[in-house]
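User: Could you check the structure of this?
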Amino acid sequence: MNGKQKLEDHPMQIDLDPVILEGNLSIPSGAEAIVLFAHGSGSDSHSPRNRFVARMLQEGRLATLLTDLLTPEEEEIDVRTRRLRFDIDLLALRVIGLVDWLTTQPYTKDLKVGCFGSSTGAAACLMAAKERTKTIQAIVSRGGRPDLVASALPGVESPTLLIVGANDVPVLGLNRDALRRLRCEKKLEIIPHATHLFPEPGALERVSILAREWFTRHLTTVSAAAQSA
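Assistant: Sure, the predicted structure tokens are below.
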């Protein structure tokens, strides 16, 4: 199949030798771009928050790949040690591997690539974007930790949207600092009254709309205004 055909929540096994990652791929009819989700600490491909955002993107004719950056065995270790979720070098290598994989598969190779990262996953996306400047063409960070890759930020060329809850005070400060370090097209969106996981009524929907508009603007020929109408 190709990117113009429809595929819904298709389970994938992605060989990133020496590990195999599992995920779910969805390609709406007529999709021009795909968004890779990089989950942060305490989250995975089954996270209802990420799946909610993914559905909103799919409604905007954006394909999505939700996959865990750690294997099940690594997840068990991380539950005990909380170490691997902060191993940004490892997570960034997995993001790079997934992005490279997308560019070689017959059903995704013609789709432009964006990354949606949360918490430490956002840091991994930013580091990966510095290494894959031609491939990763847009980034959205939800409650991200860009401070963990502060030295890499000036080298990021991908248009980057940082979304943070107004009541997520420590992370908001870290993102404001990151915004100053970024030299690409960039924007900080602050969701009123929202905390780190955006559980407040309407907060996650607002995140999804902002992300969809950003990816639509930078990855597709369809105007963001038409998508949000």
